[in-house]
## 1
Amino acid sequence: LLISRRRRQPSERVPPGPLGIPIIGQSLGLLWAMRANTAEKWIADRAKRYGPISKMSLFGKPTVFIHGQAANKFVFTSDASKMSNQQTESVKMILGDRCLLELSGEDHKRVRNALASFLKPDSLKNYIGKIEEEIRRHLQMHWQGKHRVTVLPLMKTLTFNIICSLLFGVERGARRDTFVQFFQEMIEGMWSIPVNIPFTRFNRSLKASAKVQKLLKDLIHEKRIELEKGASPHQDLITCLLSIRGEDNLELVSEHEIIHNVMLIMVAGHDTSSVLITFIIRLLANDPNTHAAVLKEQEEIKNSKPSGDYLTWEDLGRMKCTWRVAMETLRTVPPVFGGFRKTLEDIEYEGYIIPKGWQIFWVTSMTHMDDKVFPEPSKFDPARFENPASIPPYYYIPFGGGARICPGYEFAKIETLVTIHYLVTQFTWKLCCNDNCFRRDPTPAPTQGLPIQIVSKKAL
Ligand code: HEM
């Protein structure tokens, strides 16, 4: 009785759950589950066992896993002076310390606003034609005349090329190929153990990152000269960032910040949209009713325009059914599994103390599968999004939320809608094999990359 009456000390009020073996903790369990397509179950089992808040150790750091609508709100709306973003050491070393993920407070706001000035709908409207040209060229090169293609690697190539064109203003050719090669090497070691030993993935990745930074430095130099000669500041993201001036008429975003954030956008932008498009293609092959509805919508748009005309912003606004399919795909297979934050002071949550310096782990899929908001959550049903206002806030979070909500949302939406428009109106396809399993690495990937048989409608 005496013990239970005594006020518990903060150190006793840390959340339940074991921290596991030192350093390794539960990391291997989670990584193994991600590769085996059981990460959602791994997380759900923990939630069932320990409740809404529990502790574990992930990637060498004591971590508190919280879930549910209130937890999402807590993570996304917490004061930046109490909670900062947290990346793994390898990501920080490869992408650099001035990328958005590493910035906080006023610096984060300043750089984010600069990026948003390029990524906001009003500005992106002017680049639909450029995105569309990349998609048309991609289909001509990699799909037309083929009987079989593997979707995921092709979608990665496509989103990579779109980003190269829009963000760097680097046209097709030897220079873009060099960029692509170094970027691929850089990305491969991003989720590895950050010990820099020769011949490891991480070591190759760091070397590639240095080469990419050198290429970007040269590119920035050239663009500065072009701007001085009177070139438009709206050619691409780099020129746009170079032309933003502060009150003192000096560049608002430093050269270092431009380099690190262009690398971040390349990584954040291409691996996520390519996954979304890949899973929509798989869904359309498996679900004839949804395919028929998307095809009807896209054919109507196609037939309402002179042949060969580019899509307009208004056309994209009419693709409501296609976007609902995309939203339901993001609910069922969110490309980003979750993320981390770091506490900057002891924080009390649900009666427990999350000590200063600990990680907070949030996971996208938990509320996506809540049957109070999404009845029969395992069923694929795009109609759930007919009235998005009926979904309470912080339940649907494929793009995160709050001050760090994904700034690439509109960009991802445009490239997804335009790609699906061309695919359904130009091709029919069926799966070569039952590629219904996927692993997370860390974004989801069908285990065989999704090979499909295709027929061009021109050939029918
Ligand atoms: C389907 C596609 C995409 C999904 C599902 C997605 C999802 C996310 C998520 C979950 C976050 C983390 C939010 C947080 O930590 O609270 C994020 C951040 C971010 N995303 Fe995306 N993203 C997508 C596409 C893009 C694209 C196309 C770009 C760039 C063109 C982009 C750029 C970024 C950046 C720069 C951040 C960091 C924001 C910050 O820390 O302030 N993303 N995204």
## 2
Amino acid sequence: MDTLQSKTSFEEWTEQKSNGRFTNWLKAIHQEKWESVINHRFTNELGEESLDKDTFSQYLVQDYAFVDQLVKLIGHAIGTAPSLEDRIPLVNFLGQVTSEENTYFQRSFEALDIPEKDQTDPQLLPATKKFQQLMAEAGRSLNYANIITVFIVAEWSYLSWASRISERSYSKFYFGEWVSLHANPEFRSFVDWLRNQLDQIGPTLSTERQQEISELFEQSLDCEQAFFDSAYL
Ligand SMILES: Cc1ncc(CO)c(N)n1
């Protein structure tokens, strides 16, 4: 396990690295939490298709509410991105979430017999509310770096665990497609592009602001962890 302290500044860290990406610094200083999220029991059971159907159903219901807030966050990212060139990949990704991913949820809800009320107005778990609040707050900051930091944790962590379990074939489409939605070449290149956005901004920020971004990255990881944990409550 990495022995880096969360206090290691980006400046200190890059001195020992040639071409160290800002987002790799963020991951390195929160390595333990990162590993815990991407190797969560939920992802392991999903990868073995041994995940309990009710556990997955509850997770999907909560996640659809997460996705609604994520769509709003992407809207804020689009509005605060520095140029049209930067807005376009965000717009395309937003299009995917609201088409392919949205219909994945619709088809899964039907296959899993999820009541209408749970699809449109579910009882939110505390972890879902907390994550929504973090995204809403980042959106309200109207600060592109803050906004994409939360966004990066969400997409990069999903890419990481999904890639680990994407080799096998799945008998249930709602398991298999949930993995392939987060482990395909287009998604991979979007996540890399998104990280690059922050890799470019990060090094230009003051040490204090870099520390704030690091804290936001950590809070986002905490939200991911709690979100998976609450599938088992
Ligand atoms: C909780 C959570 N984090 C990240 C993603 C990826 O968008 C998701 N669907 N749900």
